[in-house]
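Renewal narrative, Specific Aim 1. Our central claim is that a sequence can be written position by position from structural information alone. The example that follows is taken directly from our test logs and has not been curated for this report. It begins with the structure tokens describing the chain, in the order in which they were read.
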């Protein structure tokens, strides 16, 4: 497969985190164009693009990228990114219990493979869903796991996002204490 796919996608994420939304989107689009010709690249590329769209709050594009990653992964026997795409896509499930259970199940499948890159972001996403459902104790556990991964792996790329979600949790905890 073409190594330009992950390079453009990761550059797009870095540009996004730096605040250059226009150039970030251009890099993701370059990666997706290149990825179409490669069996692994098309799965990985669409999954990573879906992640990028999630960060941008573009849920329709995220869901579309997840759908393409899942379809290509199943068709081409590259199932690793299928559970990750299903994890992201689960954020669109309306029923909160089903959404959280689907995310949890796909997270477990991913972690069982030994994959850890980006896991702090996924744990943060899970915590955010739990905060929305006022399950603050479990949300705090997921965030603690995310911070532990950040410390143990040194993968600080997603630390800002995890800190943002921790701030949401702290606000919600304060609200809960005030109402008591």
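The sequence written for that structure reads:
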């Amino acid at each position: 497969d073409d190594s330009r796919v992950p390079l453009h996608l990761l550059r797009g994420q870095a540009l996004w985190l730096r605040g250059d939304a226009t150039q970030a989107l251009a890099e993701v689009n370059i990666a997706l164009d290149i990825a179409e010709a490669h069996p692994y690249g098309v799965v990985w590329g669409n999954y990573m693009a879906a992640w990028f769209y999630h960060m941008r709050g573009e849920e329709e594009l995220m869901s579309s990228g997840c759908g393409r990653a899942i379809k290509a992964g199943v068709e081409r026997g590259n199932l690793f990114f299928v559970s990750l795409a299903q994890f992201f896509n689960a954020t669109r499930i309306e029923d909160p219990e089903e959404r959280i259970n689907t995310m949890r199940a796909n997270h477990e499948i991913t972690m069982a493979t030994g994959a850890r890159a980006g896991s702090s972001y996924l744990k943060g996403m899970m915590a955010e869903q739990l905060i929305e459902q006022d399950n603050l104790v479990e949300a705090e556990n997921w965030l603690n796991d995310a911070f532990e991964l950040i410390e143990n792996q040194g993968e600080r790329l997603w630390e800002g996002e995890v800190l943002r979600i921790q701030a949401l949790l702290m606000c919600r905890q304060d609200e809960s204490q005030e109402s008591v």
